[in-house]
Amino acid sequence: MRIYEIVQKELQRDGKKVRMRKKAILIFMKYPEAGRVKTRLSKSIGREQACNIYQKLVRRTLGMVSDFKHAHTEIDLFLFYYPPESETQLRKAYPGPWKFTPQMSGHLGEKMGNAFNHVFTKGYGHAVLIGTDIADIMTSDIVDAFQALNENQAVLGPAQDGGFYLIGLSSTINEIFNFPNWSTPSVFERTLNCFHASAHKVKTLYKRHDIDEKKDLIYFNSNPLFQDQISIIIPYLSGTKKLASLVDCLEAQLWPGDEIVLVKGNGSPEWGTKNISPHTRLIFAPKGRGNQLNHGARVAQHNILWFLHIDTVPPPNFGYHIRKLTLIRDMVLGCFELRFNTSSIPLNLISKWTNLRTKYFQLPYGDQGFFCTRGIFDKAGGFKKQFLMEDVDFVRNCKKMGKLLIVPQPIHSSPQRYLRKGVLRASLQNHFLILLYFLGVSDKRLYKFYYK
Q1: What residues form DSSP beta bridges with 29?
Q2: Quick check: 334 and 406 in contact, CB under 8 A?
Q3: Which of 98, 151, 117, 126 is nearest to 22 (CA)?
Q4: CB 65 within 8 A of CB 27
């Protein structure tokens, strides 16, 4: 009986060590500069197009990893980037829940080995490394990798070209990274044999597809997430300083081909279009947020429409989250959770109530960043209220056709109106306006009451 108890305690202690072992995901990426990424693919489709494809692959991978982090908060993320001098640009273009860490010098094997050593010396017990050029890597691959490391010393995810897209270790195994050549179709087999030769137990995962040559594009082109494009529509009357800051933030994180449409009120469509940058243009419309949003949607060029207020700050990886949700069947309208730029107990209560109302009553407001496909927008008849309550009215019309889905990431909104009027007064006014709207009061009268 005594021996049995000792064995049980040892098993429990070992199990506790496994459960408490720190875990990390190591993400390898290059700064997306034409001619320096996807060089083999560039030879057949051109440097710019190859770079655009790489950027989309990176953004999908980082979005998928941020989803994983949201579900597994205990796991830390490290973004190992190259070249080291690109850190400032990368922090602006790819913000997220990862620690930016430069790759060390050397060939690819040495860089991977140094990355593993970096996290193991910090006390991590399980580490999984992935690249950023895989078209079909899934969060389930990372889940499977960490589960495999509970019973194995290594895990490998084979790529269709003979390399691997994922490698996980539970301790330093430097010998597998000593080979200087990492561009041959025998990398996966060589690494697997090396594990076996050193008596390390290894598990292999599902095969995935990286995009290195023109023939690989079938896996890229078959995924609608890579083909969809977003038009961001921002109505405004004044506040050019806020607008410039928002546009700067958005442009840094756009996917290739996405656009920003600024709609200035108190104007006329006959005033034409002004190109602000290669990604952003300014148009004019009559005053009234509903009018401006409708005009922006009419001139927008892409199949996904995202309606954004001027005083908001979008969350990282917004392009991925929007694309992912619009692919879900029966989804007709999406939005983000709300959080204010300034934190206080009253404002936190307002944002919590807003998110509860959105979740249980399916009634978000426009400052939560509505998005939908152009087809849904047209079927809903656009924004039918010209001046006020255009958001509530649009939501009600969309819900007749399907589901409202919420991105579990916060969009930050300015609390200035609440602070100027007082939190309680502003909140009561909002709910009174909704009541009047449901009672059939016209949006023009509501507008006068709101801004009096």
Answers
A1: 81
A2: yes
A3: 126
A4: yes
What are the percentages of helix, strand and coil residues in the chain, rounded to 5?
A: 50, 20, 30
CB 318 within 8 A of CB 362: no
Return d(Cα 233, Cα 134) in angstroms, integer.
31
- Tell me the C-alpha distance between 77 and 97, whole Å: 7
* Eight-state DSSP code of residue 184: S
Work out the number of other CB atoms within 10 angstroms of the CB of residue 225.
17
- pLDDT tens track, the chain, 452 positions: 454 444 444 544 544 444 457 999 999 999 999 999 999 999 999 999 999 999 999 999 999 999 999 999 999 999 999 999 999 999 999 999 999 999 999 999 999 999 999 999 999 999 999 999 999 999 999 999 999 999 999 999 999 999 999 999 999 898 999 998 998 889 999 999 999 998 899 999 999 999 999 999 999 999 999 999 999 999 999 877 889 999 999 999 999 999 999 999 987 777 778 999 999 999 999 989 999 999 999 999 999 999 999 999 999 999 999 999 999 988 999 999 999 988 899 999 999 999 999 999 999 999 999 999 999 999 999 999 998 899 999 999 999 999 999 999 999 999 988 888 888 888 888 888 889 889 988 888 888 777 76
Residue type, 433: L
- Sorted by where each starts, the structural domains of the chain and their CATH numbers stand as 10-221 (3.90.550.10), 228-450 (3.90.550.10)
Reported pTM = 0.91
Q: Report residue 440: phi and psi, to 5°.
A: 95, 10
Structure tokens given for 261: 């449409």
Residue 417 CB coordination number (10 Å): 16
